[in-house]
Amino acid sequence: MSDDLFFIPMIARALQETDPRAAMIDAFERIHAMGGEPRYQRGYQQFIALMNTVLTARLEGAPEEIGALILEELDRPISAEIIVELDDVAVASFSFPGGVGVHVLSGSEPGNYRLKLDAGRVLWEGHLSEKDLVWAEAYPREPLSLAADTDGARQRLTRELELLDGTLAIRVYPGVEAGSVEIELKAARSPR
Fold first, then answer.
1. How does pLDDT run across 56-89, given as a tens digit for each residue?
2. What is the pLDDT of residues 100-129, one digit of tens each?
3. Interatomic CA distance for residues 32 and 24, integer angstroms
4. Spatial CB neighbours of 61, under 8 Å, sequence gap ≥ 6
């Protein structure tokens, strides 16, 4: 089970005990203690969001909707943190509140890149060469307009990747001496 959902088996076991109330209190104490550890922080945020959903549903008098609300809450991203490494050295960290957004890593030089979640899961690994990042190498017969290398200006991409069923896009743009890597995280498509 993912560290993001570490609390689910603990709750499931507590509900199977002969005294589920006491076992649940014990499980909540262990979940709270584990939530202080870096590897479980995101999972702890999800646990808190789940408990808030359950509490809200109970206070609103809708116990029959609690199951659906729990499943909906588990599917909702709290936030995402993507770390960019170049040749095994972290060069940037981007936060995506709500699990969506766009960030640009300017001044990207050739090398081996890795994008991973702060929890450690690798999203993409690959090599970006001068042909990807340097205009004269990517488009040797085409002049680079002056606006192309200024902040925010994009002309032509050299590479575009769609990953994770289209929820993660990586776009590479060449520059004069170094390029830019654009990372876009989109809301997951619902199977409904």
1. 665 565 555 555 555 555 555 556 788 999 999 9
2. 889 999 999 999 999 988 767 788 999 999
3. 12
4. none
Q: Where are the beta strands (DSSP E) in the chain?
A: 79-86, 89-97, 101-108, 111-117, 122-128, 159-163, 168-173, 179-185
Residue 183 CB burial class (10 angstroms; 0-12, 13-18, ≥19): buried
Which pTM does this prediction carry? 0.58
CB 56 within 8 A of CB 63: no
102: Cα within 13 Å, side-chain hemisphere: 8
- d(Cα 116, Cα 141) in Å, to the nearest integer? 35
Length of the chain: 192
Strands 122-128 and 111-117: antiparallel
Beta strands across the sheet bearing 168-173? 101-108, 179-185, 168-173, 159-163
Q: Quick one: DSSP state of residue 39?
A: G
Domain ranges of the chain: 3-75, 79-185
Of 123, 99, 116, the residue nearest 189 (C-alpha): 99
